[in-house]
Amino acid sequence: MYDEARERGLRFDFAKLESFFGAPIVKTVANKKAGLDALQKTIHSAILHRHEHGMPKLSYGKDVDDSIQAVVEAIDEKNLNPSPHIPSRFFAIKLLEQDSTIPQLKAFNSIMPVVKEQIEHLKSKHSISPETVFADCRYGMINGACREAVSNVFDEHKRQELSDKIDRFVLSPILGLPIFFVLMYLMFQFGFTCAAPFSDLIATGLAELTRFILRIWPAETLPFFRSMLTEGILGGVGGVLTFLPNIVFLFLAIAFLEGIGYMARAAFVMDGAMHKFGLHGKSFIPLLLGFGCSVPAIMATRSIESRKDRLTTILIIPFMSCGGRLTIFAMMIPAFIQPRYQALVMWLLYLIGVLFALAGSLLLKKTLFKGDGEIFVMELPPYRMPTWKAMLTHMGLNAWMYVQKAGTFVLGASIVLFILNNYPVKQEFSKDYAAEIAAVSADSTLSQEEKEKNTEHILSEKKAESREYSFSGRIGKGMEHVLHTAGFDWKASSALLGAVAAKELFVAQLGILYAAGDKEDSTGLLQNQIRTHYTPLQGFCILLFCLLYFPCFGTMAIVKKETGSWFIAIGQAVGYTIIAFITCFIVYQVGSFLKIGTTILGS
């Protein structure tokens, strides 16, 4: 960021800095690719002349240096250095700092008693951990180097005035949280507004593709594979891909807020509120990542040193609405909510997830994970306009992950669900559908359009009866005995089963069950079917259940890996499902009693 340094009035004595740190310095501006050629050439030259490489003029003080030397001698005496091109001093310092990686190397097992002896010596001598001692010395060297070799030609007070004025509002104890929630609402509004035309375009393209396949593929030729392609694959994967624009624009907005420097300030603002629930600002970044996917969010908790705080954060992350749930929201919300309120409902669902996460954190910190939290220290970056390249890269990576998931996991699961939805084949039906279709065709009082509409309705009834007889129908019927008290019928219950593997499969399964994939406007048809089969109250309960229940298999696997316990992973999944059911049971029963949203809109 050499350009920013110049603009802020910073001037450098590079010769002095190079002598202090024992390394050549190259001026670069990464987002403009300035100085990269010089950097590559300097790296190449440094490798060729590595024996002439200088050493940093850093001393940790006689006492600390003696401890380092004791460990170095132990490493060299037993010839334990796993990488001879790296000085033993590096490994000695990392061992004394209790680095997260180096002490785990088996090569150093035999000298760990020496290391522990020196660590205890330094603790007793300095009354603080060796890690802190090393950090203090390094920052002391940095401060000294800056005083010697860096100057500022501008008035520092004036330079900081604009940033301070902005932060006076953004970081305000009174305005900070409202500003955060308003920005989150605007982010969802931006996503819905911008994504709508692109989602319609994808839906139209899929409809045209479906119509083309149905036109060129005769119904009597391999009918099973014809239905699998149009209903299973296009109804499942296609239904998921329709909501790709929502993912794209949501992550574009997040990339922008992160790029201008606001997300770091959001962590600072949330730190005070999160402390009231037993967390601190370090948990905010993993929780924020949870809006994209719980897997990388849980991995990001590695930065939290306290095991209790880390476990607490891991256990509440799945309450943050991930990209898979966004697919469900983007499909269900337009079916019941007017366009001007859609972003508000989306925002409320995300907020509900956050509130459940905070309530869960408070409960865990009061019971299982009692103890003091860590002190949160975070550097606030300067405000800057992010580059389009950085934002598009961030957006593109998340969109590509979504597409890959749709093209692999969701594709395979959609085929499996299609088979479960069509087998066993029902041979005897409750009525003679063929006779009813023949009667409609022979009815001279009906127009051709009315005949087609009535015929389609009869075929839909037959397909619904057939799906109810299938494996997935039977499972859904079994689940319905319990879930009907929370607003679910057997189709929505069956869709929940698929969503255990990946949340996007809820949409895929509903698309298959309602045979949306073999129609021209699959997404519009599915939303219309939902609108005519469920009341707004049921729709809200379905959304709420999908927000709160069972984390996907990928999340369970990473929870097991990060905690080392299947008990925690399975317990989390069971607990979330119980919470989801109790919450939706209460909401549905109270809403039904008060007759709130109990009228089907499409009737």
Tell me what the structure shows.
With 603 residues, this protein is mostly helical. The protein has 29 helices and two strands. The chain has a two-stranded antiparallel ribbon. Helix 4 packs across helix 5, helix 10 crosses helix 18 and helix 11 packs antiparallel against helix 19. The longest helix has 41 residues. It is elongated and about 105 Å long. It starts with a helix and ends in a 9-residue tail after the last helix. The mean pLDDT is 84.
Number of H/I helices: 29
The strand line-up of the biggest sheet is 1-2
* Bulk shape: elongated
Number of strands: 2
* Average pLDDT for all residues: 84
Radius of gyration based on Cα positions: 30 Å
Please give the share of residues in helix: 55-70%
Profile the largest sheet: 2 strands, antiparallel
Strand content: under 5%
Q: State the low-pLDDT regions, or none.
A: none
Helix/strand/pairing class, anyone? Answer: mainly alpha
Distance, first to last CA:
61 Å
How are the elements arranged and paired?
Blueprint: H1 2-7, E1 10-12, H2 14-21, H3 36-48, H4 62-77, H5 88-96, H6 112-126, H7 130-149, E2 150-152, H8 156-159, H9 161-170, H10 176-216, H11 223-241, H12 244-259, H13 262-275, H14 284-289, H15 294-299, H16 307-316, H17 323-336, H18 339-366, H19 388-407, H20 409-422, H21 433-442, H22 448-469, H23 471-483, H24 490-499, H25 505-513, H26 522-533, H27 536-548, H28 553-563, H29 566-594
Antiparallel strand pairs: 1-2
